[in-house]
Amino acid sequence: MENWLYITVTLAIYGVTVTLACVIPSVTIVFGFIAAFSVTAVVFTLPGLFYYMGYKKYQPEQPQKFRYCMSIFYIGFGIFMMFFLLAVQILTIIEAA
Fold first, then answer.
1. Residue 73: left if φ>0, alpha if ψ -120 to 50, beta else—which one?
2. Which of 95, 96, 51 is nearest to 73 (CA)?
3. Considering the entire predicted model, what is its pTM?
4. How far apart are CA 45 and CA 58, in angstroms?
5. Residue ranges of the alpha helices (H) in 24-64?
């Protein structure tokens, strides 16, 4: 990465972080948004995605269609839960205002 791009992106992230820290009244809102992304990714989306990618790359001799279908379900359910939890956090912010 070029030096000027690295410095620009770093300062932009720092600026956004400082601005949000000054604007957001409660840290629970921040933790809610972080949890909406990280928990759904760690619990549902990433394991399903890893199994799906492994299944495609290393085709087993005896296909395990149930596990393959469950991995696709986990990916979809993880994405659904992420948007659902984000919507819950946004509604919480709206109700508090």
1. alpha
2. 51
3. 0.71
4. 20
5. 27-40, 46-57
